[in-house]
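Take a specimen:
=====
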Amino acid sequence: MKTMQAAPEIFDRRLIALRREAAAARVGQVSPILDAAAALLLDRLDDTTRRFTRALDLGGRGSVAPLLRARGLGFVVSMDLSPAMARRAGGLPLAADEEWLPFAPASFDLIIANLSLHTVNDLPGALIQLRQALAPDGLFLAALPGFGTLQALREALAAAEAATRGGISPRIAPFAELRDLAGLLQRAGFALPVADQDGLPLEYRTPLGLIADLRAAGEGNAIRAADRRTPPRAMFPTAFAALDLQMELRLLMMTGWAPHDSQQQPARPGSANARLADALGTREYKTGDNAG
């Protein structure tokens, strides 16, 4: 008999909560970036005629709830790991963990997760819970930073740490790849899963400006395997001297629906009333036939 294996704990969720709590007072510093990402994500609502009445804003940090209200959606719950961040998010505040959602099934008909799921240890499990929290024919939209985001910073820090300490420690979170996300949505039970990519170009005057923005967003290093010792004095100056300050926030967008009978269904095998060979104007061969 197989036993369920717990997801590996890559991130220290308690540390993430503390850093988001500390960042709540200055998260407005990165509002232009969060707002731009949220606007790109919510543009997908224009592709549906479905009208929503109960929304969950998951970790939106003040960028999602106002946009939903501007679209006429009056009931929005804003959930965050940090109570202070939840209070400033713009909806009905709730402090809770994405890994342990406190909602009854079918609580919402719209769930928006803008740059909030990339530090969840068990993303497949979180997606299952989110799908269960959706009413039938409810919509889930999420944006995650994708593979390649902060790659220049990752490489500069690794090279500088190797040069000054003789080894490297993980300092930037691992990010998802686009090819994996549609499959994760399907495994979680979402219908009509779609994953696509967008991006926001960013440019900083100084490396310290980038670090300040990461801290203001509550995005400090929370990897459990990170080396918490004081780094060598020369490490950060060495890394920053080699850092390219033109970069891109690669946004991986996830779209999925809670299943409902009204949705488009795949055709049953053998139900086609036309042959592909006729459409292509060619001859059909059975398995084993010699086409020559």
User: Anything to note?
Assistant: Residues 13-152+170-223+246-280 form a domain with the Rossmann fold fold (CATH 3.40.50.150). Residues 93 and 180 are 32 Å apart (CA to CA). The beta strands are 54-58, 75-80, 92-95, 108-114, 134-145, 191-203, 246-257. DSSP finds ten helices and seven strands in the chain.
